[in-house]
Design brief:
two-stranded antiparallel ribbon
Length: 122
């Protein structure tokens, strides 16, 4: 007798892709956990995780290492937080482009014995 059950390959292929990405070092975030990390359903970014990541990053200016200031981190997160007016896919694409091509954030750097210098970070 013929078996007429419909096979849905989507969950199986998604599971394989998730396992592959986890082997590459990515962390799987469940839907419910993602909603908690976003804070609201109309947000795309995990702002707390992004702020923690940026707090650990530094950059070199005139042979000195500097951390990003809390103000610069807030400006960066606000600059890439895009509204979901056109849906999640379009918002994700816009965020990807902003991250890929960079954005300019101004940060004031104290200079020894002189006026603070405004640095534009991209």
């Amino acid at each position: 007798m013929l078996d007429h059950r419909i096979f849905n390959e989507r969950p199986e292929s998604q599971d394989r892709l998730i396992k592959f990405l986890e082997r590459m070092g990515y962390e799987y975030v469940s839907r419910s956990e993602a909603e908690k990390k976003r804070g609201r359903l109309n947000k795309v970014l995990f702002e707390d995780e992004l702020a923690r990541f940026l707090n650990k990053q530094n950059y070199t200016f005139k042979s000195r290492e500097y951390l990003f200031t809390p103000d610069a981190i807030t400006k960066a997160i606000n600059a890439i937080e895009v509204p979901l007016l056109q849906g999640l896919m379009m918002a994700s694409k816009e965020i990807y482009n902003l991250l890929r091509y960079g954005i300019s954030i101004e940060q004031v750097i104290p200079v020894d014995g002189g006026e603070p210098f405004k640095q534009h970070l991209i």
